[in-house]
Design goal:
By secondary structure, the protein is an alpha/beta fold. It is built from 3 helices and 4 strands. It has a 4-stranded mixed β-sheet with strand order 2-1-3-4, with helices on one face.
């Protein structure tokens, strides 16, 4: 964990670099020191059907949700959420200056008894790091 889920209005398709945004958010998530590399996931959903505010077709939105496990202190969650939101806003600043844009972010905790995972990526990363350090 965390899983980052980005929703954005289709009218941003030509102006939004998902690779760049995901890289910026990934770097920020790792810099917090809170998350394991093997648990981070990003995905995006373009919303073709949407209406923002007064229905002006130039209005756009970007909404990011981060879903995390429950074992973190409230102050840690608050700090992480602020850092992620700030990175999101910073990355989107030029778009924000050019057009009507609503930017939002929500950090949610998963219920442990209702969250199931199977992941062998952690082991792969560990093996890769061990191999690199042996050279």
């Amino acid at each position: 964990m965390p899983h980052f889920i980005l929703e954005y209005s289709a009218n941003l398709e030509d102006d939004l670099s998902l690779d760049g945004l995901f890289k910026a958010l990934h770097d920020t998530a790792m810099e917090t020191g809170v998350f394991a590399l093997g648990g981070i996931r990003f995905r995006a959903h373009r919303c073709d059907d949407y209406l923002v505010a007064d229905a002006d077709p130039d209005n756009a939105f970007v909404h990011l949700t981060a879903r995390i496990g429950r074992r973190r202190d409230p102050d840690v969650r608050q700090t992480v959420a602020e850092k992620i939101f700030n990175a999101l806003v910073e990355y989107l600043e030029s778009l924000y200056q050019e057009r009507p844009l609503a930017i939002s972010f929500e950090l949610t905790e998963l219920t442990p008894s209702l969250s199931f995972r199977k992941n062998n990526i952690h082991e792969k990363i560990k093996q890769k790091q061990n191999a690199e350090s042996a050279h």
